[in-house]
Task: structure prediction
Amino acid sequence: MTEDGDAEDDAEDEAQDEAQDDAEWVAGSLTRWINSVSFVDRSADEVTELLIEAVVWWAQEEGWRAYRKARSVFPLPPPFEHRYSFVDVGIARRDCAPIVVEVDRSDRKRTLEKLVAEAERGRVALWLRWGTGTFATPPAPVRLIPCRVEAHKDAEGHKVFSTPTLAKPAPRHSGVDLSQAEQTDLFE
Result:
């Protein structure tokens, strides 16, 4: 191998490392943003919409252009193979790889195939999965953004979802020993 070949390989390796670091940073940033989102008693459709809006807001806060229902590179299945699918959010960044985000409650094989196709075209592919269970880690280069929720039935019997509430400790009391205190009658 020539010195020129070694230099080209080194440059290619460095570019791959930078892309990997960028994808990890992007995934971490969106994960932190999604972890700050809270909601109570929302339907499945409302949760999906709320999370898509959160992704758009995150992208805009980063100074990027976000597009809902952006055209995907992934074609639709037959008989519509001449048409293309869409991603929930497409994000354009100056001087960086574009980002695509799919938001799903279910583990859809087609979504994973779409994200892999997007990653093969040089995009940072993020799968924002939400639900009550655990989520299988998708194969690289697709990055998982988990959003755990709690579910219950509302008064009308509809399944609704909420972000988990943190158990708060009981407040500390004044330290006064009430066993020796005298209670006065409040209604005298």
Residues 4 and 10 are 10 Å apart (CA to CA). The chain is about 35% helix and 25% strand.
